[in-house]
Amino acid sequence: MELDMMRRIVPLAAGLLVSSLVASSALAADINLLNVSYDPTRELYAEFNKAFVNAYQKETGKSVEIKQSHGGSGSQARAVIDGLQADVVTLALAYDIDAIAGKGLTAADWQKRLPQNSSPYTSTIVFLVRKGNPKGIKDWDDLLKSGVAVITPNPKTSGGARWNYLAAWGFAQKKYGSADKAKDFIGKLYQQVPVLDTGARGATVTFVERGVGDVLLAWENEAFLALKEFGPEKFEIVAPPQSILAEPPVAIVDKVADKKGTRNAADAYLQYWYTKEGQEIAARNFYRPRDPVIAKKYENSFAKVELFTIDDVFGGWTKAQKEHFADGGVFDQIYKN
Amino acid sequence: MGLTLSWLSIIILIPLAGLFLKSLELSPEQFWNILSSRRTLNALRVSFGLAFAAACVNLIMGSIIVWALVRYRFPGRRIFDAIVDVPFALPTAVAGVALTALFAEKGWLGAPLAALGIKVAFTPVGIFVAMIFIGIPFVVRTVQPVLQDLDPEIEEAAGSLGASRWQTIIRVILPSLAPALLTGLALAFARAVGEYGSVIFIAGNLPNVSEIAPLLIVIRLSEFRYADATAIAVVMLVVSFVVIFAVNRLQRWAQSRIPAH
């Protein structure tokens, strides 16, 4: 009788084992990718990943699972440098990926490997003001009017805040004609800042929920998200006549992708940004698309702003970082007195 | 003994040694320049100064709370007793966000205070408030068991020997509680010095004004200047260690003066 039981149980168990193996291999994706990104892209990548997974499955028959990590851009770069196994990084500024490249994790010329500086979507810096714009803020010099409190995060800890700072600097340098005058402008601007949050989301919360300040310097997509979340009856977006072209870049982390054998999938993932669907997703999430056709389609969603690039005005990120945000740089100097 | 030592080494001493080693990448001159910069000095002053002030407030208010919890029976006493532990259990960032919401200019407490011309959130006062919040359980939980063990009969005896209430407190109760009070003070201080999560939201983070030393460390890290960051960390560690060591000695001294009973 015992034998009889065994005869019945063994195949059953074996069957269970096999079927569970099959099931788990069906559940486990062929390829796993880790995308290390920054804070305000949560909503964007939630949508993008889903679309990419479907497209990739259709094209290659392989399933991909994408894991997502968000945090401050600089600290995310540090995590990758310290060994977080990211296949791709999608950060707020090229400087952070340069730091990763500086450690030999990715090619030094990473920014030339994909079209348009490896930035498939762009944004700019705009003003979020309280409904009715009570302080009459239209342009950058209105921020210096007495009694205007400006909310912007700390450029030392926040990538977004560096774009804010450089946008203001670029404006002042153009308008007043010299770097010295721009420095003077920036010094006065930061005297109007009562709180320096450590990240862009924190600054948005300080302005929107805590009710501190008259104007928030924000990524355009963050401003739109805040408007969507809290309603146009409370806030409005003011686009200054000119601002900076913020180009959040994307790159493969060569060392990791080669080790894990995920280079092809990682490459397809980033290339997908440059397809029509990718560009649509960027536009729907309030990032400015690069594709001229899609850009035309969404042109009424974005204000017309004259955009200058960091290369034009500052000679690239590395130089800007060194001059302005490194220890003892201009940003430290304006807090000396 | 062997187990204790190896465990302590793995958990505490080796990481600390790593910290010291990292800071050795700097020449003594670089080390000195980092520490003597106005920014660093101000951040250390904010962190240590406010942490000490907050610990002192906690010492006084904590003692009063302990006294009420131990010596009186009132409705809801157990609930209050449990509430004391909330700052222990709460994730610090949650505490920070909650305090900021409360004390911001439009918050429940912030609005009336702003009407009086007092700004709390985004000023050093805000840092002070957050440090009081996270420090209070340390005083209460170290002093409470000692006071519970202190026999009220001793006070009665003192009274029957002609001591006034005030004399009883100063000469009988306080000396017995002194070691526990000092421990509570040191713990509340140490916690407040290193506190990041709850302080960062309410601080305002303006350089030289409301910038705490832990934030300066984070800033140096985000500049990829690991050695600079560890230099500041090492100073905080050494100062905290000296303070805790001094309090330990004081505590021993106080213990030796407890009247035998």
From TrEMBL, chain A:
Q: Which GO terms describe its molecular function?
A: molecular carrier activity; sulfur compound binding
The Gene Ontology CC terms held by the record are: periplasmic space
Reply yes or no: does the keyword Ribonucleoprotein apply: no
Q: Where in the cell is it found?
A: Periplasm
Tell me which UniProt keywords the record has, alphabetically.
Periplasm, Signal, Transport
Query: What coarse category fits the chief subcellular location reported for this protein?
Result: periplasm
Q: Where is the signal peptide?
A: 1-28
State the InterPro entries in the record.
Sulphate/thiosulphate_BS, Thiosulph/SO4-bd
Transmembrane annotation, as ranges? none
Q: Name one GO biological process term.
A: sulfate transmembrane transport
Family the UniProt entry places it in: Belongs to the prokaryotic sulfate-binding protein family.
Name listed for the protein in its UniProt record: Sulfate ABC transporter substrate-binding protein
Organism listed in the record: Bradyrhizobium arachidis
